[in-house]
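Figure 3 (text version): structure tokens given as input.
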């Protein structure tokens, strides 16, 4: 081996959604009693929307203008765990193999991917503290 390792090696680094604990948060949301879930559903839905917006921004990173954002539908409170999981997976897939310094669209401006992921990790931790 010449030591020239690639970021795309299977199993070399955990995916972003794994490192921030999305699966654990989603599992806690799924196990919550409905009365408690109703109190955190808006925050969970907001995170799902942020994750979806970030995925769109990563996928449209070469565009001259920010992507048209698509609202994550407001469904039953029982769907919010799956919405968080799916949108986190979409972001992880879109960002896979990209350098953290890659400029992507986020909140209407170009920002380094690493900064976007750090902001989303903080928002994920905030939700995790609520659940």
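Below: residues designed for each position.
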């Amino acid at each position: 081996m010449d030591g020239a390792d690639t970021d795309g090696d299977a199993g070399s680094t955990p995916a972003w959604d794994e490192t921030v604990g999305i699966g654990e948060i989603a599992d806690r949301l799924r196990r919550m009693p409905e009365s408690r879930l109703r109190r955190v559903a808006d925050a969970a839905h907001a995170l799902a929307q942020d994750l979806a917006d970030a995925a769109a921004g990563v996928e449209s990173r070469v565009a001259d203008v920010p992507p048209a954002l698509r609202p994550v539908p407001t469904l039953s409170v029982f769907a919010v765990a799956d919405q968080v999981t799916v949108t986190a997976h979409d972001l992880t897939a879109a960002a896979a193999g990209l350098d953290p310094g890659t400029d992507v669209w986020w909140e209407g401006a170009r920002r380094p991917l690493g900064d976007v992921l750090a902001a989303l990790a903080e928002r994920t931790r905030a939700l995790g503290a609520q659940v």
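Residues 34-59 form the longest helix (26 residues).
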